[in-house]
Amino acid sequence: MINYHKILEMHLQGISQRTISSSTGHSRDKIREVVNQAKAKGLEELTEKMTSSWLEEYLFPEKSASQRGYYNPDWDYIHKELLKKNVTLKLLHKEYEQEAKIQNKMPYAYRTFCEKYGHYGKKYKLTMPIHRKPGEILEVDWAGSTLSVKNSENGKDIKVYIFVATWPFSQYSYVEGFYDMKTDNWLTAHIHALEFFQGVPETVVSDNLRTGVTKTDYSEPLLNEGYRQLSDYYRFTIVPARVRAPKDKSSVEGNVGFISRQVIAALRNETFFSLKELNQAISEKTQVLNQEAFQKRPGSRSTVFQEEELPFLGSLRHPRFTQSQWRISKVQLDYHIQVERMFYSVPYEYVNDEVEVRITDHLLEVYFNEHRIASHKRLRGDIGQYSSNIDHMPDNHRRYLTHTPKENLLWAKDIGPNTYAYVDYILSNNVEKKALKLLATLRNTASKYSLEELEVGCHTLMSVAKEPTNSLLKSILSRAKKRKKTLDNHSKKSIIEEQTDSKYGFVRGAAYFGGKK
């Protein structure tokens, strides 16, 4: 048997491979193979339990298994498959048994299979036991430490709060600074983090702060409405951590301390004059940390995230989520609601009702029983401005609002040139207040006649009258209507006479009723 322990002991003492070969009696090729395999496994020291048999199984597991007639599993494949959702060692062992039978080899028992995988995970990857699935959970929090930005006007420091998002599986992190910890910045931080990660987790574990959780409850916490909308839009579940239970988000708690030491503390003596400048420095420091090699496992936070976690993330929706605030408002008697001392109309049918108002940077939407009933462009500038939609008004208010010289001319123009000429005559020969009263009377009269009748009446009026009036027009329209009615009656009478038998007075004839021809 090859004396693996002696070979590696001499190698670790710095003895040349030629001397080791002479001392152990093994070929230089075999010495080189053992030494290279030990280097590949990261073996840097020997312990008492590392006998030659143990080392043979550790360095060449496939050789040990095949010598005993066992089928050696592909532990790299087993490890990657176990990372997938709903995949267990029990399932993988069944698949391994089937593969062993195909190869006419003896499979390991399930217990041995688990022990060997545990040995593999501990010695090769240092990732056992596995508590988190890749892409499953993202933990978020505000760091306890802060940084500052110098106010260029008065030289005072403006406090900056640090947001941290960490994947428990890969420890890959995103860090960004904000001037406050209010809801808008809390949601913005989540959006920026998801865009940085280029994917969405199944679950976000957040702290129980007011920006994310309105009411703390272990079983059914009440989420902030904006936070709930964010999770619905990007399709992830929010699980707030329990109060005074830091283990619920241990990765981000540990990473907050790590970030505080490696990023916040590293920037403590630097001066920044804008939040953008500070965040650029934070981003550069975080990038270095994410790419720094692990001490006890292969790769870095970045490589583990890119290779093992990113493929399991949900797709990122586009366009970006639009943040909004929700408020309750009561519709006043003037069918307007007041939001931030600005006034917005809603349909008058909702007067005295309470409505929900969704506010974004550029839009305001009004909802009643989850149905949108109005939307307005958000007003900016001087307080007390009104945004009124004419369709929201009662008919009498709408008519009053549209009763202007310009609107009356447009109304007349749509009817015809004679009506337009008469309306223009009224506006030209009367002061505006009196003209509008005359036009109101005209439009009331016009409502009783067809547009064609009104146009013909105005033509007659403008042709015969030196000083046209509403009374004269009304008389013309009335006589025209009576004349038309008379003509219609004569026309009907003529038709009846033509259809009636001149002798018997019946269209069907006397024969139809039993009379003689």
TrEMBL record:
Integrase catalytic domain: from which residue to which, for each copy? 130-310
UniProt GO BP: DNA integration
Name of one Pfam family that matches: Mu-transpos_C_2
What terms describe the molecular function in GO for this protein?
A: nucleic acid binding
Similarity remark: Belongs to the transposase IS21/IS408/IS1162 family.
* Protein name stated in the entry: IS21 family transposase
Species for this entry: Ruoffia halotolerans
